[in-house]
Amino acid sequence: MFNVKYNEDTWKFIFPILINFFMSIIMYFLTIRLIPKIKNMFIKANLYGIDMNKKSGEKVPEALGVVTGCLFLITLFLFIPIPFTKYILNDINFPHNEFMEFLAGLLSICCMLLLGFADDVLDLRWRHKLLLPTIASLPLLMVYYINFNSTLIIVPKPLRPWFGFSVDLWIFYYLYMGMLAVFCTNAINILAGINGLEVGQSLIISISILLFNLIELSGDLWKAHQFSLYFMLPYIATSLGLLKFNWYPAQVFVGDTFCYLSGMTFAVVGIIGHFSKTTLLFFIPQIINFLYSVPQLFHFIPCPRHRLPKYNKKTDKLEISTAVFNKKDISIIGKFIAWIFRKLNIIKWQEDDKGIVTCNNLTLINYVLIKTGPMKEPTLTLILLLIQIISSSLAFLIRYPLASIFYEV
């Protein structure tokens, strides 16, 4: 696992990771102690929601992702000197570029934590949700420009006769990285709405990244993956603590704060760690959910404010939620997309003689319910998390055995 080509002392290599690991364990126990003590403060501050998938109608504190987000950042703030101890003590060749990367990553995550909490409090519009991650990623992109400014991509083998071995994307590479930050922060947010799903899927993604980092520690880019581990370990620890209270029946809601924090954390390690394409592979369910949701997100098909599954009080099960509209109200593009979806049998479409259409809301959650029928909330969450695990396994298959078909690995 450890790269010996650099003549690094094994203890000096593993020491920061061990310190980070033990700090993360402490933060896990602090998380599970802190949340029960302060959750009522959120209700008093009117930061609560009603779980629409329960009979009780009790107030559930919302935006508790800000608590784990703060603990996550505190862990990393306290950890800052550890990787640089030998340079500080010996006063030799301080790696300012690595220090800048660490601080830029923290700054971007801190910005998204703030903006996510602002969204939970102020209920920002979608155009703001697209703009704010772009702004928050600017420190990250600037550090990437100063330290690397590498915009070359290796062309897959089948395309090299036409494009050559590599292509310089120039400014479009930075546009891609900015869009990656926007996608990661919003992708988790739109695949949400049932207890434990947001935290569960984020944990599976983070554990997948962690495993990938451990595998790649023996490669030439081991420092980038060591950097990623510094972020993933405390993130996993604090998120596990949050999942304990967000799992069915949820005692707290995580809010957009947690989704934004998670997305930006994944974007930071993917960009600075030079494995953004691999990071996207771990987002396969989120990508599918986004593509499936595009007709409603861009209003080609009418989109209600909430697309959560519908709760049936009699059966205590979740059913598909629907949008009802007049077929005349949708554009030609919307009708064409609906026709394709109906041919592919991935939409439940009912139309009466007057042209009134009832169709399922276009989310992966509703699609699963179409295929399985109504089910209890924890069972639905487990199925969706199983899909996430299978997708991560597929991502590793693509990244290692199949990658050799397209690249030299």
Model description:
With 409 residues, the protein is mostly helical. The chain has a domain at 9-290. It is 63% helix and 8% strand. The chain has 17 helices and nine strands. The strands form four sheets. Strands 7-9-8 form a three-stranded antiparallel beta sheet, with no helix packed on it. The chain has a two-stranded antiparallel sheet with strand order 1-2. The chain is globular and about 80 Å long. 37% of the residues are buried.
Provide a short characterization of the protein structure.
It is a multi-pass membrane protein. The protein has helices at residues 10-44, 65-79, 85-90, 96-122, 126-136, 138-147, 160-163, 171-190, 197-216, 222-246, 255-272, 276-281, 284-297, 332-343, 364-372, 377-399, 403-406, and strands at residues 48-50, 59-61, 152-154, 166-168, 310-312, 317-319, 322-326, 349-351, 356-360.
Order of helices and strands: HEEHHHHHEHEHHHHHHEEEHEEHHH
Q: What would you call the shape?
A: globular
Characterize the quaternary organization of these chains: single chain
Low-confidence stretches: 1-7
Sheet having the most strands: 3 strands, antiparallel
Instruction: Provide the residue-averaged pLDDT.
Output: 90
SS-derived structural category: mainly alpha
Distance between the termini: 17 Å
Radius of gyration: 23 Å
What percentage of residues falls in helices of 4 or more residues? Answer: 55-70%
Number of helices: 17
Question: Strands of the largest sheet, in order across it?
Answer: 7-9-8
Number of strands: 9
The fraction of residues assigned to DSSP E strands is 5-15%
